[in-house]
Amino acid sequence: MGKSSKRLPPRDRKKQTADASAMTGFLKYALVAGLAVMAAFSFQLFTEDAEVRALKRSVAPLQSPKVTELDYFQEGYKDEMLWGTYRPGMYLGIRARVPKSIIAGLMWLGISKQMYRTRHECEDSDEMSGYGWLRHDGVRFGRQELLDEGYLITTSFMKDPEDRGAFGEWAVRVTYDRNKDYIDIRGEQSHFNQGSFLFYIMDETEAPLEISPDFSSHDRPFASGKHAQLGRWEFRTRQNTNGEVHFHGARAKPEDDLTKIVRDNVGKQVISQNKMILDDVIEPGSNMAVFQVTGTVPLEVDFFFTSPGGGGTETEAASIPGKKRLTKRLQKAEAAFDERFEETFRLRENGASEGDIEVAKHALSNMLGGMGYFYGRSRIAISDALKERLKVPYYKYWPAALFTATPSRSFFPRGFLWDEGFHQLLIGRWDRRLTLDVMAHWLDLMNKDGWIPREQILGSEARRRVPDQFVLQHTTNANPPTLFMPLREIAMRIAAASSDAAADVSDDERALLAAEKAFLVRSYPRLKVWFNWFNTTQVGKLPGSYYWHGRDATTDRELNPKTLTSGLDDYPRASHPSDDERHVDLRCWMALAAESMALIGRILGEPADVYEETAEHLSDFSLLNQLHLDEKSGNYYDFGNHTEKVELVPSPVTDPSTGHMYGRQFVRVTHGKPRPRFVPHYGYNSLFPLLMRLIPPDSPILETQIDKLTDQHFLWTPFGLRSLARSSSMYMKHNTEHDAPYWRGPVWINLNYLALAALRHYGDAPGPYRERAREVHAELRRNLVGNIVDQYYKSGYIWEQYKDSDEGDGTGSHPFTGWSALVVLMMADQA
Ligand SMILES: *[C@@H]1O[C@H](CO)[C@@H](O)[C@H](O)[C@H]1NC(C)=O
Ligand SMILES: *[C@@H]1O[C@H](CO)[C@@H](O)[C@H](O)[C@H]1NC(C)=O
């Protein structure tokens, strides 16, 4: 994604001074003296120039205490969060939150297009009828169903850090059965009765395991070992059915394709014995142990991972829960989830149907079950000239951990900065600790300049899934600072609690508020640098204007040069990118950021005048209107060098040497002359002044904006607000021959969530349009929830987008339970 920007940021003197002034006098003196010596030294001996120095600076972490190192995240919390289903890109993948972990995962042999396939990583091409967590609390418990043709696989995960004596670190139950509801293409019920699944455990540090394939009793672990950070550990299997068991021990590196290792091993027996089984061989020095059960369904196996010398109490093999006891514990955990869910969202109390409630539980569970832990180094793009000079294809960020939610387990099982602020709006309602933890990880990824890589492809497991051309991150690229949304919620909660001193809060709540405050204290220096990065690198020419820098002004392949940095990718902007541009969405994000900074500053008693002033400036309604309101249409627009008269036309490609035509490509042809003007594409971008609540509640402009929302000629559909008006010249247009419309029509849930939240705000604020805002809120909410639920029952998934026409079908990647899971807050009427 993202066109490589050819230039590196110029060295920013201002920021360096800011860094320096934070140091003590002595350090400053030492630094200045040191720099002088070094400067003289390097002047003579090195030819290292400003470009290289800027590059090195861009891969250096910001010098500010790490947020993840706050006391709150140590000891008890760290221990509680150690293990989890933190490999969301796998159908079931478990790991600990250490850089190189013991990892575990499920595989099975499925059929696609009449061929056996090894299922392991979530892939759309597996064409599963549905899969995902039906329950997941983000920490201790989850139950998932995987529907593969005629089979139904259920996986339950459970841990109980307070009862390690009985449970060890974690337990997993896998049940492999016929899917009784399955009807095949001939209209027949599933007739399958044979099945097979595999479960592996592997040490990423490559320390060899002890593997003992004696399955007669679970007293003996199947595999055991000693891990540098996790200590001594044992892994047991217990079959609750009568399948045939096979095994394999392999030597594997973390960057190896584990699916292939297993597939190749099974493949050997297919050839020699016509059986899809492992070879029962343990290679010398194996660090991966694979267990397989095969036979007549149902098949059920419990897996236990214990760590006798590890974090908790000694776990006696003998005390491992029996089948019935584990069943009971799982049922109890599920009941606890259900109770907590109702307590948190009150759907039943508010009259939601059981069907709706079930979808909401799945949505939340998949958001939580989609959380992952990643460790590695981002790859940073460098200019062609530097590649040549430094003889490297890219630069590397420092090695770092990221604990984060993910947009989609199949398509985007990694961290995205723009998505994360939305994710935390939901996660923060369920478990505020997780939100602090995730944001701490993201903020610690900030470099010295105040930049955070927007797509986090950390470690070989994540990298294997991303095509090379999309791996590199560009240090000049921005992305919406959505983390300010959850940050503002935290700040507002603290402000409310302190002004409401008489309120009687529980000890837990008090501790949590204290943790949140400590989090803000630790984060504030980072947030300042982050804000400053946006406020200096993304400014426009006129005061109070901003634009997403880095659009490609030279391409003739795109109908409208994309703006990936904005998160709205192909949403149409000025036809001819230039530094005269003013982007209304970015200006509004900046208003949110400045207002949040001012609020946080006030709470912390920090000098925040400059944020107050900036916030005031950016929320100045007449200035906003001057820069972005098109009086004629009454719409908020970008401004830029623009013409509507562009089209993509097929043109022949000829071989320059022979003059022969050998193909065809689409190029953009401009018929009109671009001129500086408002960019007349009404859509999500135009809504930002409303979404960020910058329109005064008593302004007639508010009424115009709300009326416009409900007009079907523009954005209103029975399925939510579409991204671009039907009246726009770019509505549902391809951007290149191969780039289908993305933010040019379909309904997206994150922006619809913001629209609902804004309507709720205006419905609560006294003013002449209050009733109107309430009505529209109710109707929009009904449409969104109704369609997401319908589509879920129709397709088995929650989707990345929904069609703005026909039946409102889900489109794009699926399951997509990142921001689309905000449907939970819509149902709970918390939006
Ligand atoms: C943001 O930048 C503007 C100039 O473009 C400046 O006036 C303002 O003080 C800056 N705000 C902050 C908080 O640094
Ligand atoms: C607008 O774009 C055209 C075509 O690139 C260019 O010739 C013209 O100078 C631009 N106008 C302005 C004001 O930037």
TrEMBL record:
UniProt KW keywords: Endoplasmic reticulum, Glycosidase, Hydrolase, Membrane, Transmembrane, Transmembrane helix
The protein's Enzyme Commission number: 3.2.1.106
Residue ranges annotated for the Glycosyl hydrolase family 63 N-terminal domain, each copy included: 81-268
Enzyme class of the recorded protein, top EC level: hydrolase
Superkingdom per UniProt: Eukaryota
Membrane topology of this protein: Single-pass type II membrane protein
Endoplasmic reticulum found in the keyword field: yes
InterPro entries reported in the protein's UniProt record: 6-hairpin_glycosidase_sf (IPR008928), 6hp_glycosidase-like_sf (IPR012341), Glyco_hydro_63_C (IPR031335), Glyco_hydro_63N (IPR031631), Glyco_hydro_63N_sf (IPR038518), Glycoside_hydrolase_63 (IPR004888)
Pathway listed: Glycan metabolism; N-glycan degradation
Primary localisation category: endoplasmic reticulum
Record region (Disordered): 558-577
Any one of the GO BP annotations: protein N-linked glycosylation
Subcellular location: Endoplasmic reticulum membrane
Glycosyl hydrolase family 63 C-terminal domain segment(s): 324-828
PANTHER family the record matches: MANNOSYL-OLIGOSACCHARIDE GLUCOSIDASE, MANNOSYL-OLIGOSACCHARIDE GLUCOSIDASE GCS1
Protein name (Swiss-Prot/TrEMBL): Mannosyl-oligosaccharide glucosidase
